[in-house]
Write a structure and sequence with these properties.
This protein is an alpha+beta fold. It has helices spanning 19-22, 32-41, 47-50, 60-73, 131-140, 186-197, 207-224, 263-268, 281-285, 289-296, 325-336, 347-355, 370-379; strands at residues 4-5, 10-12, 77-79, 85-93, 99-110, 119-121, 142-143, 147-151, 168-171, 177-183, 201-205, 233-240, 248-249, 251-256, 274-279, 299-302, 308-312, 340-345, 361-364, 389-390, 401-402.
Length: 404
């Protein structure tokens, strides 16, 4: 079973730095403009070490490591005196405007490959260069951003000290409230570790970073002639797999191909499928279309004018597939012919991509349920790539984990 342990973290000096100035969203959701805005907010923002850019030169990863060490020497970053865990809660609103919260814990998760232990991927990954994250690990010798794990251990949430006054609390640029609690009590650490170690854990977000951590572990084992020390584990944010703790949003499909056709009409002509309605551009932009999709058991095909045609795809057409829109859309498009897929969360962003000519069509899908994620976890099946978008995203810079 997965081993989850405390570590002596590296944190921004709370007397000098406010977390809303120095923490950052995950590197893979940031645009160049987002990065520039974070750097302008504070020249010590975590994005400077977590997201080196090509303009920094070919040694940018080593430079990120040098910057991290310089911040330590200057007292910008201070190491915990003893190993700790960090409870972390994010509170926001869902697509319908209702308050939702995710409470989990940051610690060191022992690495294992699929089949070696009880750490399980929950969806297939898309081809993606992993050299960037591996080069960053080599240059910084630190875990900078946490992967996200879902624990099948019931009762984990109740072990976290969220009823106490938080160590830090701030609201980010999107209006999400972030709160952290430092856990140093040995009995509390033991109880949390026992709970997480007593049940399988599913990788929810950060599959590529997890695979990169495994590659780096193996490099260190070879170089060190044995165990890889701190690199045997990786920084992980663990949340109990339950409806109360998770907000899952869909990742929509941007389709390149079928430009001369009416894609909705072609999908609706497939056996068992049918066009079942339409949605206005405003309904697409503000997300109301997702309610219609639930009502009609449909997906939505968005064209260049921003409006959508709603299409029901027959689940009986491919009984071997998971009961997911992502799986049915992939199978349906495969039947229609050659195409390329890209992925975009947010109905408004998917719509904007089509209107700007960045894609021929967008297909909006419904979010995966927590029950479906749990069912797949128990069976070991993987969902299609980019089936889930967990929201909100943990910030980078709450705590770093050194690997030396």
């Amino acid at each position: 079973m997965p081993r989850f342990a405390p570590f002596a973290g590296l944190r921004y000096d709370p007397a000098r730095f406010a977390p809303d100035d120095v923490t950052a969203p995950p590197y893979d959701v940031l645009s160049p403009a987002d990065r520039a805005a974070l750097v302008a907010r504070d020249p010590h923002n975590a994005v400077l070490v977590d997201l080196p850019v090509e303009q920094d030169g070919p040694d940018r990863y080593d430079a990120a490591g040098a910057r991290l060490r310089a911040w330590q020497a200057e007292g910008v970053l201070v190491q915990d005196p003893t190993p700790e865990l960090t409870a972390y809660r994010m509170t926001t609103t869902d697509d319908l405007g209702r308050p939702v919260a995710t409470l989990g814990v940051l610690g060191a998760l022992e690495l294992s490959r699929p089949g070696e232990g009880q750490i399980l991927p929950h969806e297939h990954t898309t081809p993606k260069a992993k050299s960037d994250r591996l080069d960053l690990l080599r240059g910084t010798r630190a875990n900078l951003s946490a992967i996200w794990g879902l624990s099948l251990a019931p009762g984990l949430t109740a072990l976290l000290p969220a009823d106490e006054a938080p160590f830090q609390s701030w609201t980010d640029e999107d209006g999400t409230l972030h709160e952290t609690w430092r856990i140093a009590d040995p009995a509390a650490i033991r109880a949390i570790g026992d709970a997480i170690g007593g049940a399988p854990l599913v990788i929810a977000d950060g599959h590529h970073r997890y695979e990169t951590s495994l590659a780096y572990r193996d490099e260190r084992r070879t170089a060190d002639g044995g165990a890889a020390g701190a690199a045997e584990s990786t920084l992980c944010y663990v949340v109990e797999l339950s409806d109360e703790q998770l907000t899952v949003r869909p990742i929509h499909r941007l389709v390149h191909g079928f430009a001369g056709d009416d894609l909705a009409e072609r999908l609706g002509a497939l056996p068992g499928a049918a066009v079942v309605g339409t949605a206005t551009a405003d309904e697409v932009a503000d997300g109301r279309v997702l309610v219609r999709l639930d009502e009609l058991d449909a997906v939505a095909v968005v064209g260049a004018d921003g409006t959508a045609t709603l299409v029901h795809l027959d689940p009986a057409r491919h009984p071997e597939l998971d009961d997911l829109d992502s799986a049915r859309v992939a199978a349906a498009l495969e039947e229609l012919g050659p195409h390329e897929l890209h992925y975009q969360h947010g109905t408004d962003r998917a719509q904007a991509a089509v209107r700007a000519g960045e894609a021929d069509w967008a297909i909006l899908i419904r979010p995966v349920t927590v029950a479906a994620i749990e069912a797949n976890a128990h069976t070991g099946h993987r969902m299609p790539p980019k089936s889930t978008f967990f929201h909100p995203k943990p910030r980078t810079g709450i705590v770093f984990r050194l690997l030396d």
